[in-house]
Amino acid sequence: MDPSFGPAGLGYLKIAESSNQAYFLDMVPVGNDVATLGDTYLSRFDASGNLVSSFGTGGKVDVLAAMGGRATSLGVQADGKLVVAAPSITTPYPWIVARFNPDGSLDGTFGTNGVVQVAVGGTRNSARPAGIGFYQDGASQDIIVAGHAGGLTEQVGIIRLNADGTLDPAFGSGGIVFEDGGLAPLMLAVQPDGRVLVGNASQLRRYTTSGTRDATFGASGLVSYPLSNVLKIRLLNDGDIMAVGVNGNDALAIRLNPGGSLNGSFGTGGYATYDFGLPDRFQDVREDAQGRLVIAGYQRTGAGRYDQLVVRMSANGVLDAGFAVGGYLLEGILDDARAVLLDSQGRIIVGGQGRNAFGLHISRHLPN
Known about the structure:
Layout: E1 12-14, E2 24-30, E3 33-38, E4 41-45, E5 60-62, H1 63-67, E6 73-76, E7 82-87, E8 95-100, E9 115-118, E10 128-137, E11 140-148, E12 156-161, E13 176-179, E14 187-190, E15 196-199, E16 203-207, E17 222-224, E18 230-235, E19 241-247, E20 250-256, E21 271-274, E22 280-287, E23 293-302, E24 305-313, E25 328-331, E26 336-342, E27 348-353, E28 360-365
Antiparallel strand pairs: 1-28, 2-3, 3-4, 4-5, 6-7, 7-8, 8-9, 10-11, 11-12, 12-13, 14-15, 15-16, 16-17, 18-19, 19-20, 20-21, 22-23, 23-24, 24-25, 26-27, 27-28
C-alpha cells in the first residue's frame, strides 16, 4: 500500500466505524478527490486520504436524512456534482434521485430542493434503482437511472432525467421504460452514443436512445454470458464491455465487443477464470492508461474472513507479472474490495466493506 495515503502512513482510511454506516456501495472521482457512498452516508476524501472538512459536515453527508431512503447507487457529473439514487420505503415505492453540489449541499436547481421522486410503474417494495449513468444530450447532461421496476412481471425500470430533474419525454413513455425485459437490472452502463446497457448476473440487454430494445445487440437485444455470476460491467476506451464476477470458486472476467459478441482476443474465446488458491471473486474493473485491466475483489480465507484482492492483467486477460507478485495482491487488512479507481498518477484506489472489522475502507496502492 501507498504509505503517503491515510493517517499515520497506514496506506488506508476507515471512514465509518459503526455497522449502520458501513455498507459500502461505490466511489467516484471528483477532481483529485474521491467521493464514496455507503447506504446512509456520502463522504469525500482528498489525495492524501483525509476527509474533506468543507464537504457536508466534517466530510460526510447523511443521505438517509437528505433523501428519505437508503442509498443504492452513485454517479458523478462532468461538473463534479454527485447524483445519488435510493428506493423509497413508502408506497408506491418510487425511486428517489438527489443531486448534491461539490460541497455536499443539495442542488436547488434539480427537482424540488435537490430531490426528485419518480414512480417507475411498479408498486412492490422490490423497486430499487441499481445504477446511474450520464448522456451528453447537446449542451446538457442527462441522468439515466436503471434498476428493478417493482412490477409483478415488469422488472426492467429505466428513467432518463433532464438536467433540471424533469423526465425526458423523448425516452420511453414520458421518460420511463417499464417492462418485462427478461431480467431485473442490477447494473448499468451508458455508451457514448446514449444507448443504455442494463444487466444482471447472467444477461445483458441494450436499449436505444429512445428507450426501445436494441435488436442489433447480441441476439435480438440480449446477451447471455457464457459463465456467471457477473457482478459489474464497465465500458473500455475502445468501446468494448468488460464484465467481472465469480464462477464457482474462481474469479471471472468476460470481454465483449461493442455489439455484444465475445471478444476472442481475451482469455479463451472471450472469457477467463482465475484461481488464486482459495475462493475468489472480482467485483469491479477499470482500464489504465496503457490499456491494462485493474480489478478489485476478495478472497475468502475462512469462515467470515476475507482478504482484499487486487489484480492487474493485459488487455487479453494475461496476469501482469510486473504487478505485485505474479500479477495479483492479497491484502489482509481491508477485507472485501467492491470498487476500484485509478488516479492521475496511475495509483490504484480501492474501496470496500469491512468484513473482518466493521467500516468503510479506502486504500491506495502504488502502480507496481
